[in-house]
Amino acid sequence: MTPNLIKTAAFMAASAALLATAPASAETYPSKTITIVVPYVPGGNIDTTARLIGRAMGEVLKQPIVVDNRAGAGGIIGAAYVAKIKPDGYTLLLGSSATIGTAPAVYKQVAYDPLRDFTAIAGLNTVPMVLTIGSRLAGVSNFDQLVAASKKANGGISVATSGNGSSNHLALELLKRQSGFIATHVPYKGAAPALTDLLGGQVDAQIDQLNSSLPYLRDGRIKAVAQLGSKRSALLPNVPTLAEQGVKGFDAVTYTGLFAPAGVPAEVQHKLVEAVEAALKDPAVVKAFREMGAERVSLSPEAFAAFVKADTTQWRTTARDASITVE
Q: Which of these CATH numbers, 2.40.128.20, 2.40.30.10, 3.90.1150.10, 3.40.190.10, describes 128-245?
């Protein structure tokens, strides 16, 4: 065989090899298992949300979706892992107002930028925050009366939250700056012990997620003074928002959403959005959200991304102005 024929044969063999592998490199997404990273231990609301959504999305995408719990440092470890991984749509983050909004605002060392390193795929649900009072403020019925009581108390009234640097803590600091409310922050290691002390009369008030306070609101053991979101929750329709009570523009909720590493292809993002939209209509998901006290996010991908940016910016500013840092 002449040298030219050898070269031609080699070229044709190489071309055939490329054509044979082309379908694999241009395969239709998704073609294998997708992982949703939950940056917390199993069993909480965020973990439950991931498993619900993952099951429903998997049915739409015709691929299994598994949950990988990577807990630690207030959700930062799991989020940082996803931020640095290949943006091919096979590893996603079940992000929240904590991992995207408040944790990067208060922790001194965070290995990701919440706005630069992630693509917001879709919002999943929100849980309203609520300002509640216990027996020590039995005569207070609304926020104006609470502010008046705080001005009469030496050092203000005591307000419990789930911890220093938590979403609830930042909401309290934001509220103090946007109103005449005078309060002493009392941080706990979680919402449950804070609620226990509110029920026991050790603290005056608490900022909490509505779902954990709701049973005690319903039986009258504590009282809601205001909802902190921009609209009333259907679970607490008779309690006005802070905005309705004169604190204009106040909006503080906790949310969950699906995020991918920055740079995920547009066609992959589109398929994920479609799968989320279908999953949020799944009867089992709708029922579970209702039982969790959560409300579905009904925003377009663009609107959700804008919401995430505004929320993250709000908590960055609040943490900076209040000099809140966590080691």
A: 3.40.190.10
Q: Look up the pTM and report it.
A: 0.86
Render pLDDT for 179-219 as a digit per residue (tens, 0 to 9). 999 999 999 999 999 999 999 999 999 999 998 999 999 99
Among 242, 213, 210, smallest CA distance to 226 is for 242
Fold of the domain spanning 34-127+255-321: D-Maltodextrin-Binding Protein; domain 2 (3.40.190)
Task: Please state, as a whole number, how many other Cβ atoms lie within 10 Å of the Cβ of residue 293.
Answer: 21
List, for residues 230-275, the tens digit of each pLDDT value. Answer: 999 988 999 999 999 999 999 999 999 999 999 999 999 999 999 9
